Amino acid sequence: xxxLAFWAHLSWKAGLSLLAAVLAVLTIVAPDWIELAFHIExxxxxxxxxxxxxxxxxxxxxxxxxxxxxxxxxxTARLTPxxxxx
Length: 86
Description:
Number of helices: 3
Number of strands: 0
Distance between the termini: 37 Å
Largest sheet: none
Radius of gyration: 19 Å
Shape: elongated
Oligomer: single chain
Order of helices and strands: HHH
Strand content: under 5%
């Protein structure tokens, strides 16, 4: 059960990282997707919302990826037997 809980915990972090990365790339490739999807222009077409969204999504993606990596390394370090010291 603990193994399943670990994988579920790691999966949502990796999933959030992937979702944020896709959002960042989408905003870079098609910066007007917000206006097209929601039929609003929150920044009056200046692009500040898109820049902020890209920076925020990229930051969240990097942070959650590093967080998942840290958890993975801690878990594998606990499972790996220590080498004997000479």
